[in-house]
Structures are given as C-alpha cells and as structure tokens.
Design a protein that fits this description.
alpha/beta; Alkaline Phosphatase, subunit A; four-stranded antiparallel beta sheet; 18 strands
Length: about 475
C-alpha cells in the first residue's frame, strides 16, 4: 500500500509539547494571575480538552503512551530509564510513511540509542541525558533541581537556568526550520520544550511580578497528617513533609514565571507560522506530558494521581477545520493523541492502540460518551508502591498496592480532592465496580515482577556507562555558567 498520496493537499501540523504544565495554570483554563496570551489565543480559535489525563504522571512513560497509543502495561515503559523498542511503531512512523516531513525540535525524552522513533530529522538534542547512569553536568550549581527532591524547592526563585536557555534554543531552531525549509511535503513538527518542568527558576522580572500578585499558599499541615498512608510515604521519600507556605509561594512565583516565559516562546513560533506556512494551512496542537502539583495538598512535581499532576492541558487549533472556542468536558487521555494525529494526517492505523481518534469530536460531529473511562498507571523506581487510577464520570479511584484501602474522590463535589472517600462504606459498591474495571488493565504482580527484572538490567547498564565513558547522541550542550538563583 502506497501511503504517500495527495501530500500537498494536507495541512501542516505543529505539535507544541511542554513538560510538567499544570492544566489549571493558563489564562484559558481560568487562572486569573498567569499571563498566557498566546495559548489563550490558540484556545479561542480552537478546541480545548478540559478533562484530559496523562496515562502515567511521569515523563518517559507518559510520552511512550502518547507515541504508541498504549498504556504502560502494554508498551512496557514504566520509569524514566526505560525505552520503547525500536521495532515497534509510533504515530510518527505512520505520519512519516503517509508523506509528511517529520521533524523533532528539542525534547522528547527518548532513552537509549534510538533518539528518533519515527522522526526523520532532529534540530536540537535533548536537555536530559539519553542513557541510564550518565551524569548531566549542564545544571551547574543548580544540580539536582530538575529532580523530585527538596533541593528543587530550596533553590527556587529568581535567576536563570539551562532549562530556560534550552527552550529558547529549541524555539529558535523551530522558527529557523519553518522559515527556511524547502521540502515540498507537508510538515509535521514536534517542538519539545523542557519548561515549565523544574528547576523552579525564572527571570527576575517575571518572578517579582508573580511574587507580588499571587495569593498566599494554603497551609496543608493538617492534611499531611490525615492523608492516605501511601501519600505520606510519598512525602517522606522526597523529604517534603515540612515544606513551609513561604517556600510554596516562592516555588509558585517561579513556576508562573516559567509558564509565561514558555508562552512568549510559543508566541514567536506562532508568528513565524502565520508569516510563512499560514495559519489557515496549519493545525497547531499544544499539550504537556503531565502536570505539577505545586504544593497543593503538600505535593510537588508529578508521580501522583491528584489533578495537578495527572491532568494535562490540550488545545487543538485550526481555523475552519475545528469548532472555534469549543470546550470538550468529556474524559480524554494522551492515548487519544496517536489515533487523532494519524487520522488528521491520513496515516495508517497502528497495529494496537487503546485510545480513540478525537477528530470527529474536534469537528463537532460527535461527543464523548459520558461513561467513558480513562486509566493511569505508575510503577516507578523511586520507592513508592505501584499505583493506578481510573477516572469515570465524576469519580476518581486510585489503587495503591500494599494498602488495604484505595483513595476515592467525587470531583463534582470535591474538585480539590480534600475529602477521600476510600474508607467510607457508603461508597463500597462504587469502589468495587471501579476497582474491577481498573484491574482489567492493572496486573500489579506481573508489573512488579517486570520492574524487578528491569532493575537487574539497569544495574549492569549503569556499570557499562561508567566503564566505557559512553557518550550519548543528540544531546544538547548548555552553558553551566548561566545557572544561578539570585
């Protein structure tokens, strides 16, 4: 079957993919403080998925699910040291085979020697190291701040960082390629940013602005002591049991500044699209791989299934193709990205996909079934027990392996997830029904066995990296002297 047909009649597709963007912190999401005029404009001329979830609240597993259209339990990627097999196709393979010029500018957090997984060109390498056990010197005196550890909070504030530098380089490379490309094929470009992923550091003018206007952070001491024991263990594993409201405020001011900084870069890319490709000829998608809890309920970063971590912002914008200004309240997930992109680009469907194409929804022809479920899975190697989430209707159930009771939230009545109903017998039938459905996708004993086997491989891989001084490929090299906090 020859898929390279009528390529010139198709629209260009630009996929703007950020890292760790809390879905609630955007003007189009209703945040009254953050300045995101460029994302807001995309939302006004496109479709916003208001209830879209990542399928694992961790970088590499989430991106593996996005690319493959499969849950971690199907594609085998559960932590940031694992890789998709190179002999398994992603939606990028399908789009490339369908006649698109496929370009990756910047980050996708691929692990191992295959840094493409379907992309034929790459403009900027990744900011993080692409092989397990390889150190990353580019953070300078901000070493450790991109990780889930207290140092990220301690060193938050006004300043500059390699993360900001990387995103600027990525945006400039994307703009240059769009401006100067000669390829006659339609363009599919993923622009992979690192922000607003921690480090929690932003330029001083932005930090000062948000530090002055943001409200006081909520004291969560009482919540910390009453929350599910799996979450108490989560706090302890990261040393954040006693983060103060002052520290929370500083982190949030820096994070808000990073979101605005990202929005400015996105604005420059959109301007270049308008001037060259033409907005009428281009589909622009914005999404993030997972969120950031930012101190809500005492949580930071990701690796949990609270809304701040698990829900993601998604916008599809294409004048004349989608319903301008529409909000989709039905439940969606990043599993839906692969089939939607393939439909959008007239590619061949992948052999397996667990999501659904949203193209008929974006075009106003269909709606999301109100009984649809979305699934999240987490089995990392940071010391937390494996956990899994199902969201269905207004209910969210979270199973924590090794504990006798789950977490259950009624998001229609409790959107900030303060009232855990998991130990309330009133809801035992709901808990039973949701648990049964979730376990169809969640064989936790098999997952633990697979994880433990992987750790044996990881130990040898790390030793190999140290012994051979393995040099990664397609890695971005930053200026360590530009990392500082005032």
């Amino acid at each position: 079957m020859n898929l390279v047909v009528e390529a010139l009649d198709r629209k260009h597709v630009i996929f703007l993919l950020s890292d760790q963007h809390n879905a609630a912190i955007a003007g189009f999401a209703g945040d009254q403080y953050v300045r995101t005029p460029n994302l807001d404009k995309l939302a006004a001329t496109g479709v916003v998925l208001d209830n879209c979830y990542c399928n694992s609240p961790l970088c590499v597993p989430s991106r593996a699910s996005l690319l493959s259209g499969l849950l971690p339990s199907q594609n085998g990627v559960f932590n940031n040291m694992q890789a998709l097999p190179s002999d398994r196709v992603t939606f990028v393979h399908s789009i490339s085979a369908a006649g698109y010029e496929s370009v990756l500018a910047g980050r996708m957090h691929f692990i191992g020697p295959d840094q493409r997984h379907g992309f034929e060109k790459r403009l900027v390498g990744d900011v993080t190291r692409n092989y397990p056990g390889k150190s990353n010197p580019i953070y300078g005196n901000l070493k450790g701040t991109p990780d889930q550890s207290k140092v990220a909070i301690d060193l938050s504030g006004a300043g500059y960082s390699s993360v900001l530098q990387f995103d600027e380089d990525v945006a400039n490379a994307a703009i240059e390629h769009i401006r100067n490309r000669k390829d006659p094929r339609p363009l599919f470009m993923t622009v992979g940013f690192y922000g607003p992923h921690c480090q929690y550091v932003c330029p001083k003018e932005l930090f000062d602005y948000y530090d002055a206007i943001l409200p006081e952070a909520e004291d969560v001491d009482e919540f910390r002591h009453s929350v599910h024991p799996a979450i108490q263990r989560w706090y302890a594993n990261r040393g954040v049991e006693n983060v103060t409201v002052t520290e929370m405020r500083r982190v949030r001011a820096a994070y808000y500044g990073m979101v605005e900084y990202l929005d400015r870069l996105i604005g420059k890319i959109i301007d270049e699209i308008e001037n060259t490709l033409g907005l009428e000829n281009t589909v622009i998608i914005y999404a993030s791989d997972h969120g950031d809890s930012l101190g809500e309920n005492g949580l930071f970063w990701k690796s949990n299934f609270y809304e701040g971590s698990a829900r993601v912002p998604v916008i599809f914008s294409s004048p004349g193709q989608f319903v301008d200004g529409m909000r989709v309240n039905g439940l969606t997930s990043l599993l839906d990205i692969a089939p939607t992109f393939i439909d959008l680009c007239s590619g061949e469907k992948l052999p397996q996909m667990q999501g659904m194409s949203l193209l008929p929804v974006l075009q106003g022809e269909e709606t999301i079934d109100d009984q649809r479920s979305v699934i999240g899975q987490l089995a990392d190697i940071k010391g937390d027990n494996p956990s899994a989430m199902i969201r269905k209707s207004n209910w969210k159930l979270i199973l924590h392996h090794g504990y006798d009771f789950p977490q259950l939230f009624d998001l229609s009545q409790d959107p900030t997830e303060k009232r855990d109903l998991g130990r309330d017998d009133t809801y035992k039938d709901i808990i039973s029904s949701l648990s049964e459905e979730l376990k169809r996708y969640w064989d936790v004993e098999a997952i633990i066995e697979s994880r433990d086997n992987f750790l044996k491989h990881l130990q040898i891989l790390r030793a190999w990296v140290r012994a051979t001084n393995y040099q990664g490929i397609e890695e971005w090299q930053g200026d360590i002297d530009r990392n500082y906090v005032i």
